[in-house]
Amino acid sequence: MSTPTQAHLVNANAAYSATFSQGNLPLPPGKRYAVVTCMDARIDPSAAFGISLGDAHVIRNAGGNASDALRSLVISQQLLGTQEVLLIKHTGCGMLTFANEDVKKIVKEKVGEQAGREVESWDFGPFPDLDAAVRKDVDYLNKSPSVAGARIVISGWVYEVETGKVRKVV
């Protein structure tokens, strides 16, 4: 049985694939950079950041968290040749609205004791200060032996969901 979301996927993909002509793009991203950004549905990285198909790796997770993205960044750089990272967090991020304890309590209440035990040691990565979180994650990547290096450029940005504009933090 198909859900409405699954049906939408199939229908949208049929329209997309009917005119798709870029199946010959190489595996490594053509512009040799990666973007780490939030999974927030209000962010369209391709449109907002000018990324065309095949240009860059776009790594998304809750809060645009650098440590969550590390595995993907290592693969992006070491196996696929990217040489720059744009870390982009955003205004109005849900990660600004809670503490770790809040999520752990909600999971335990909604899903049960076993789930509560599973997430007890997790750091969900909330942050109270947006610019400080950008600086912290850029610093984390710059200090990571598996990412940092003379040939890797790492910068940190904030995307304003209210205006669609970006501003450089570091």
Reconstruct the topology from this structure.
Blueprint (H helix, E strand, L loop, with lengths): L3 H15 L14 E6 L6 H5 L6 E6 L4 H14 L4 E7 L9 H12 L1 H7 L10 H14 L9 E7 L6 E3 L2
Parallel strand pairs: 1-2, 1-3, 3-4
Antiparallel strand pairs: 4-5
Helix pairs in contact: 4-5
How would you describe what is shown here?
- By secondary structure, this protein is of the alpha/beta class.
- The chain has helices spanning 4-18, 45-49, 66-79, 100-111, 113-119, 130-143, and strands at 33-38, 56-61, 84-90, 153-159, 166-168.
- It has a five-stranded mixed β-sheet with strand order 2-1-3-4-5, covered by helices on one side.
- A hairpin with a 6-residue loop joins strand 4 and strand 5 (166-168).
- Helix 4 runs antiparallel to helix 5 (113-119).
Unreliable runs = none
Strand order of the largest sheet: 2-1-3-4-5
SSE succession: HEHEHEHHHEE
- What shape does the CA trace take? globular
Distance between the termini: 48 Å
Strand content: 15-25%
Major pleated sheet: 5 strands, mixed
According to DSSP, the number of beta strands is 5
Q: What structural class do the secondary elements suggest? A: alpha/beta
Enumerate how many helices there are, as a single number. Answer: 6
- Kindly state the percentage of residues in helix: 25-40%
Backbone CA Rg: 18 Å
Mean pLDDT: 97
Summary of the model, kept short:
With 170 residues, the chain is α/β, with parallel strands linked by helices.
Jot down its keywords.
alpha/beta; 17% strand; 6 helices; 170 residues
